[in-house]
Design a protein that fits this description.
Helices cover 53% and strands 0% of the residues. It is an all-alpha fold and 136 residues long.
Amino acid sequence: MPIVVRVVSEEDYTKWVAEKKKDLAAASDDPAKVYTLDEQKERGAKVYAANCAACHQPNGKGAGTFPALDGSKVVNGPKAGQFNILLNGKNAMPKWAGVLSDGDIAAVITYTRNSWGNKTGEVIQTQEIITVRGGK
């Protein structure tokens, strides 16, 4: 049985490990699981801190060209609008589909719709994101 060994830099190895961890986390998402509001907010807070807070600020107040999420009509309006922006991007907002897992997107939307002054009470489930994205 042949074995192939690749020698890579420490930086490339670290990137590879990070990607594998991300793949494993995404694969562990059970799209059929129904999460509670508290579960989604807890997970969403972590996703927000790692991916959104730099632009929209930890307090959701935004800065400069990055709009506030606290009190936002998009965040507090019909969820389809927020789904569209996170999945497809808009202006400086990157397209998060394919970057974040469907579970992470559902969690961060739940978090933003129920944090700061936003109190929709909605819990976005992974399956909703899969459906909107055109998955099964």
